[in-house]
Amino acid sequence: MKTALENIRIEAGKALEAAADTAAVEQLRVLYLGKKGKLTAILKQMGSLSPEERPVVGQLANEARAKIESLIADRKEALGKAALAGRLAAETLDVTMPGRKTPTGNRHPLNIVLQEVEEIFLGMGFDVVEGPEVEYDYYNFEALNMPKTHPSRDTQDTFYISDDIVLRTQTSPVQIRTMEQRKPPIRILSPGRVYRSDAVDATHSPLFHQIEGLVVDKGITMADLKGTLATFTQSLYGPEAKVRFRPHHFAYTEPSAEMDFMCYACKGEGCRLCKGEGWIELLGCGMVHPKVLENCGIDSTVYSGFAFGIGLERIAMRRFAINDLRLFYENDLRFLRQF
Amino acid sequence: MNLSMKWLSDYVDLNVPIKQFAADMTMSGSKVEGYEIEGGPVSGVVVGKVLEVIKHPNANSLYICQIDVGREKPLQIVTGADNVVPGAYVPVFTDGSVTAEGQKIKKGKLRGEVSEGMLGSLEELGLTHGDFPYAREDGIFLLGEDCPVEKLGQDALEVIGLNDTMVEFEITPNRPDCLSIRGLAREAAVTYNVPLKLHEPVVKGSGGSIDDYLKVRVENQELCLRYSAAVVKNVKIGPSPRWMRERLRACGVRPINNMVDITNYVMLEYGQPMHAFDLVHVKGNQIVVRNATPGEKITTLDGVERTLAPEMLVIADESAPSAVAGVMGGEFSGVYETTQTVVFESACFFGPSVRTTSKQLGLRTESSSRFEKGQDPENCIPALKRACELVELLGAGEVVDGIVDISAPKQAPVTQKLDDAWISKFLGVEILREKMEDWLEALGFTIEGDLVTAPSWRRDVTCQYDLAEEVARFWGYDNIPSTIIHGEVKARPTEEQRFVRGIHQALLAQGLNEIITYSFISPKSYDQILLPQDSPLRRSVVILNPLGEDTGVMRTTALPSMLDALARNYRARSESARLYELATEYLPTEEGKLPNELQKIVIGLYGPEEDFFTLKGTVEALLEQARVSDWEAHPVKDDPLFHPGRCARLQAGDVTLGLIGQVHPAVADNYKVDVPLYLAHIDLAALLEKTGGSPVYQPLPRFPVSTRDLALVCDEEVSNAQITTTMKKAMGKLLADWQLFDVYRSERLGEGKKSLAYALTLRAEDRTLTDEECDKAVAKALKALEEIGVFLRK
Global pTM? Predict the structure, then answer.
C-alpha cells in the first residue's frame, strides 16, 4: 500500500504537469482526491491493515494528499499566471496609433494674450474697466486735449457717426469716464475694440484692439511710469527683455514717450526685422496732461498720473509669430485651432 | 522732414558717426526714421580728362576715348555717346565700379577694342536733369564749371557734390518749428551741447520803394496774423547754383529755377512757407487778404476749378482771388520765363482755418500742412529777408527797398515760474536747476530770475508739465530711474467679469472655438438673413465715412458675422465647425445719443455630428454653467432666419434668454452653404439677470432610488415638455429625475402617432420608497397623462 500511495503521488504529479488548463486540473483533483477518487479508494482499503500499520499508512496517506493538494495549487497558480500573460499578450496595442480626443475649443489668440496682459496688471492692482465703442467726440478727443481743429486728429483717421459721435479711435475715453466717476487713487486697465479708417492689409485693420492703462494718485512720477511698464514687459517677454523710452508727442500726455523693446532677433544690432534700428516700438505712454485731469474735475496741483496704450494685435502677432493681421478676423479654423 | 547733413553743418559743428547722430536725436525727441548716403550703391567713379576721341573702326555708333585719370597711362574707354570732346572732364566708372542701378562695370572688349571702364551719364550716377540742367540727358555728363576738379582720378562723387547724407525725421505735430533746418539744428546743438551758429540775413537793396510797386490790405486779421512781402525787379530767371540745387535735392525737393528754388530753400531752412508770384498778374498792384465771397471760384495751380466758401481766406487783387491763403496759389500766381518783377509773400495764416479750408477743398499741400500746425508770426520777416539776401547772392534780380509788413497784435508769450523742485519730483529724479536753465536757454527760452519765457516758435510750451518735458528730453528718458508705484494695491475682477470667464470655459469645454469678427457689416447682410423690411433691426448706426459698403453700418445683430465665419470655413472645406463669439450689437437710440451696446453669446455649428439637439445640448450646458434654471423652450415658427419647425425661444419666466435653431435653407443658400447650419443667439444680460449665483450645497441622498420605465403613446403634436410637466406635477417631489431614452414611430402605432419611452427615477428624502408607493405615484402620473391624450403603450 505504501507503494500504491507513492505511485499515486507520482502519477498525479505527472498528470498535473500535463494538465493544460484549470478545468483539466479540476478533473484531476476529482480523479485523485474526490470522494470516488484514487486516494480515497486506497484509504478505503485501510480496514485490511493491522492496527500497527494503520497510523503509519494513515500518516503516509495524509502526506500524499497534502502533496497532491499542493501540486494542484501550484499548477493552478502557474496556469493562472500563464493565462493572464497570454491575455495580456493578446491585448497588446500599437501604442503609436493616434489617440481619441474629447475635443475642446480654443480661445481666440487675441484673447489669450489679452487675458495674460490683464492678469499681469491685475497683479499690479489695476481694475479692468470697459466702455462704449460708439463714443461722443468729447470723450474721444476734446476731453483728451484734442479740440476739433487739433492737427493731432489727423494721425487718427476717424469714422464718424455724426459731428459729435465717432467710433472711438482709442480706449482713452474709458479713462475720462472713469476719472469723472471715481476719485483717485485710480489704477485701471481698459481693453477693447477701437476703430480707424485704415484700409485692410497685413499690418492694418479698420478695427483693432487696444489696451490702455491709467494711474492717478498723489505723487505719481515719470519714474513710476517707467517702472510699471518695465515690469509689464518683463512679465510678458521674460526678465531679460530690455526696453527704452524715447520722447514722443500725444495731446493727452506730457511728457509723452514711446516705449521700444530691444529687437529679439538682433539684440539691438539692427536687422531687417527692426528696420536697422535695433529696437521695436511697443507702446505709447506719458504723464497725464494737466488739462485732461482738470477736464475730469481732478485737481492737477494735487494729483498726477500716467497713461499708456498697447496695441493688442501687435503683441499677439509677435507672441505667435503671426505675419498677417488679417488672419485674426478671418476666423479660419485651421488658424484658430493652432492656439 | 528730410535733413541734409551738409546744410546742418552751416549751423552746428558735429563730429559724430551718422548712426550715433540718428540714435542721439531720436532719444532727445527728434525721431529719426532712417538715413541714406547720397549716391546709393555708386562706387569707384573717378574724374577723368578726355585726351582723344576717335571713331571705332568696327562700329559706326561707337567712339574710342583716351581718358587721363591721373594714372601712369590713360584709360581706353569705348562709348556710344556722341557728346564726348577732348578737354572735357567726365565721370569715369573704372574697372570694378558700381552704377546707381547697382550694375557692376568690368574691363572688357567692345567690337574688338579694349574698354577699361565706362563714361558716366546723369542717370548712371542717380541724378536727374534738375540737378545739372546743363548736362545732356542722353549723353555723357561733361562736368561744368560748378564742378571744380582738383586732381585727375579724384572721387567724382565728391567733385559733383553727390556725397551728402540725408536723414529722415518724423516730426510730431506739436513741433512745426522742427520742420526746418534751423529748428533741427537747434535741437542738435542742445543734444550735443555745442553752439548754434545762427545767421542774420543782410539785404543790400537797390533803391526805390516798395510802396511804388505794391499796396496790401488785410481785411481779416484773425485769420491772417501777419502778411509781409518784398519786391524784386529786373528778375533774371535761370537755374540756381549747384550748392542750392544740391541741398534741395538732399531734402527731397526738385530744383526748378532760381526764384522757385529760393522760396523752397527758405521754406526748408526757416520752416516758413513762401510764395513768389509775378507782379504783372496783380491787378491794380493791390493785394487784398480777405474772406472769399459766397460762391466765389478759383482755378488753383493744379488746374482744378474750386468753389470757395465765405469762411475761407483768399489772397486777391482788385478783382479776383489769386490764391487760397496758405493752401495753394491760383493758376497765374507763379513765376514764368518772362517774369520781370516778383513779389515774395511771407505770411502767417491762422492754423485751424487753413486746416478747415484744406479739408473742405480736399487739398493738402506742403504749405497747408505747415500752417495748420501753427506757424510763428515772428518768423515771417527773417524768412523774407533771407529770400531777398539769396536773390542778391544769386544775382537773380534787384531787391526794391522796403518791405510790406501788416501784423495783427502780437500774441503775448507764455511766462511762468521755473519750478525746478516740482520738476525733479514729478520726473522722479533730482536734476540741478542750472542744468535746466542751460537747456532751456539753448532752446531759445529767456530766463529772468525765477521766470522763464518760451520763444515765439514754441507755442506748445504753456505749463510746468511742458517745461518738465524739455528738461526730461535732455536729461535723457533713459536716465530717469524705474520705480514701483507706492500705495495700496487692491484689484479683482468684477462679478460680471468672472461670470463671463465661466461662459468662456463652458463653451470651450464643449469644443467650441472662439472667433472675433468685425463690428461693422454691410447693410446687405440684413437681406441675406431675410430680415423683414419693417424690422426695427434694420435701423443701424450708420458710419458717415465708411471704407466701403461692406463695413458701412454697425451691426444690430451679430448673426451675419457668425454666418460669414461658418460659410468661410465651409468654403475652406472644413468638414465641421463649432464656433462661438462674445459679440457686441449696436442698437440705435435717440438722434444724437449713443446706441445701446449689447453683449450676445453667438454659437454657430455645422457638420455630420451636428443637429438641433447637439446645439440645444450645447446651450443647456452653457445655461447650467451660468446657473440659469427654470427655463423653457418654446417653438418659434415665424422667424425667417430659422427653419420654421426647428427653432426655439428660450424663456426664463418673463425674460427671453435667446433663440436657437437650424438656419433656414434659404438663408444658408444665401451664404452658399448646402448643409444644415445651426445658430444660437443668447443675451448675456438675460443670463446675468437670471443666474442663480453661487451654488448652495445639497446633502447627498441617504435613501436608494427606485426606477420605472414608461413607454407612452400619443399624437405627434404632444410635446415632450407637455408630458414631463404633467408627470412632474402629478408625482411631485418623488420624481427625482427622468430621461427620455427612446422615440419610436411605426405603422402599428398608426399615422400621426409616436411612442416616447422614459426612465423615471423616484426617491424620497426621508425613507426608502416601497414598491407600492412607486406604483401609486406612477399610476397617478399615467392618469394625469391620459387627460392630455398620452397613454401607456400596450
Answer: 0.85
